[in-house]
Amino acid sequence: MTSPIRTERHGDVLVIVSNTPPVNALSATVRQGLAAAIAEGVADPGVAAMVIRCDGRTFFAGADIKEFGTPPVEPSLPSVIDAIEAADKPVVAAIHGTALGGGCEVALGCHYRIAASSAKIGTPEVKLGLLPGAGGTQRLPRIAGVKLALEMTGKGDPITAARARDAGLIDMIVGQDSLEADAIAFARDIAAKRPLPRASQKTATADPDAVAAFRKDNARRFRGFDAPAATIACIEKASDGSSFAEGVAFERQQFLKLMGGTQSAAQRHLFFAERQAAKIDGIAPNIALRPIRHVGVIGAGTMGGGISMNFLSAGIPVTIVEMQQDALDRGTGVIRKNYEASVAKGRLKPDQVEAAMHLLTPTLDFSALADCDLVIEAVYENMDVKKEIFGRLDTLCKSGAILASNTSYLDVDEIAASTGRPQDVVGMHFFSPANVMKLLEVVRGEKTADDVLATVMALAKTIGKVAVVAGVTFGFIGNRMLRQRQTEAAKLLLEGASPEQIDKVHTDFGMPMGPFQMADLAGVDIGWHRDPTRIENIREALAAEGRWGQKTKAGFYDYDDTRKATPSPRVAAIIDEWRAKTATPQRTITDQEIVERTLYTMVNEGALILEEGKAQRASDIDVVWINGYGWPVYTGGPMFWASMVGHSTVVAGLEKHGFAVANSLRK
Length: 667
Ligand code: 3H9
What we know:
The chain is of the alpha/beta class. 47% of the residues lie in helices and 12% in strands.
């Protein structure tokens, strides 16, 4: 087998090149090739310096995640990096694309680093439930200081080449096209310079204040996760006077502990699940896509505005249509306000806001949608209204335009049937706030054309969404499962549990909020028939009293002016009233029962959705719940979690309460 690593001589400089598409992951053969190439350079008296670079779209994007969990193959990445650093001739990393994880660690093991201006450098292992395990937690603070090392490894987001240069991580920034030539010239310049700068020989200055502040500032973000604390401990170890050898031994111990744990297994599952979700069963990956140059959005409310922002931010012009001028002005104003809030937080520059707003055409003229390549309807949930809109779009829009509905529940096939071109109709279910939430459920109607589906899935990636294909079923994947949870939560309330107890079980599990906190946030009046004389359950009793949730400072909880929730005596009284009225026997509900009836039932519904073919794969369901509803990442999503709990346990829990169990869970 030919090695993915080749060497090329440019006079006295040996250029070591990796060619391992798609992302130059550091698999066993790459590590073997790298080790051999370094040995070759060290042994050859004609070589004065070495350059390591990669072909393709990126420098090494990390260890090969597919190898994790399989028996180790020599040489290990730490030993290869140690060999690079120990070389008695300078080694220069020439970075383009993203030097991530083990890739960043290879660069840190090199004596010098130069990068293309567009390059990014990072240690994202924490997002896989891990920490940099090839010396990264020890070399990074020694080069860039404790504060930046904490930031990079604790949060896992990459930094730009310019920031890396300012922090001393990069020695020189060069042009994209001249990277190799510049790296060779640089290597030649410093070939004779001694001593060689070796990160392991530097000292990191302890910064206990930075560590304490980092822990405090990120307490909420890190809640429930194992990896950040372990990462921070390693960075502290790098700066507490321990030797480099002691530091890497500690790092290894922590790395192996995380690698053997369920959280990393779950987060690695999610990494591949998100990429898998983009693949559509039965459609060739190279299918020709429809060009989307201009998007139309119908409705300038919260949803329509948020949806528009996704495209504007990606540089795609949007025409947004409303019925009334004041609604249009309000919607446009909210879009601007949201962008300006991002400027205030330093996430956007003012000229980027102007550029985005410049791409927006607000109008009351429906016929302005005629030339759009994609039109997304984002009006309220009413089948008749939607059908009427799609009928109009059918007569108006150019041939080949994709007609999408942002419905959260309604039958996309019925909507499609109101047009003469059902093959061009698809569901695009965004989650609120649509400019923030990562999830997009793409609903494949019975007649949706393959290229329409593929175009929308590809477009989702362009606008930074994680898209999942769902079939036509009430509530699609996410809301159909949510419904089970809400139904059981309401029953548990009657049977003796309190909103606080039920919500706490969910937040202890790692959800951002429980069923009743969620109802209060979304609005207790959502979906309410609005007839205060017709009260059929606790929720309707609350709605009839104007307890609509946070917006009215009263819902399942009472709220103060800062939106702080406290248990409500009035709600307790309403619940008691309903318990009496329905003659429901009272009993103590255990937290375990709440888990079984609200979480296991969701798993069961997920399994049914799969059996019915409304989701392509179990991991897609995990992607939906993690990106759309805040299911805790470190459990891998409901379906992965169920497999960790054990299907037999889930089945037993469901049977205990008399639920009809999905067949696939019994297998
Ligand atoms: C690590 O380094 C541990 C060390 O500290 C210690 C070791 C001892 N391995 O994302 P894309 C695949 S942990 C294997 O769609 P993009 C990916 O599955 C690692 N495969 O492209 C996909 O395959 P497919 C730390 C990988 O352009 C294909 O490549 N590093 C890996 O949108 C394309 O991926 C990271 O966590 C990998 N490391 O984004 C970086 N990476 O086509 C993880 C990707 O079959 N990677 N694949 O679906 C990324 O963040 C993005 O892939 C990247 C490119 C930004 C590089």
